[in-house]
Amino acid sequence: MVKIAIVNEKDEIIRYKDRGTLNDDDIYRVSALWLTNPKGEVLIARRSYNKKNDPGKWGTAVAGTVDEGEDYYENIVKETEEEIGLTGLDFEKGPYGRNAKGKQFFYQWYIAHTDKDIEDMKIDEEEVEEVRWITKEQLIKEIEKNPEEFISSMDEWRDMFM
Q: 3-161 belongs to which homologous superfamily?
């Protein structure tokens, strides 16, 4: 089983644990991608219904828990290729912080731009049910109208970028 980095209040690695043995006190690391296209749309992804956390809910284009031996950047590069099949993106560091709701984790956002259509992406169906491009305005409306359709922290993340 893959081990993930457990960190202290300063985001310093203190140990590694099997993903399945996390408890409420564990703080871990997550990398996430805000992906845009030339039309100014944002890619969002519906999480697989088989996922333990937020199954079937819409979230950011790519997100992943940082595994043992990885840093935030290495993780987002790996997850982007695994989840949506894109490589060679120019990742710019975005917001960094700590999630205060529910699960405890530090997050590092990355921002990238692509001209790829959804048909050009290779979606990993074990991780992602579907992806779609959406305007920022439409995303705001959908989150306000149907918040239960989105991961719990989507409203906070939306506010960072819009």
A: Nucleoside Triphosphate Pyrophosphohydrolase (3.90.79.10)
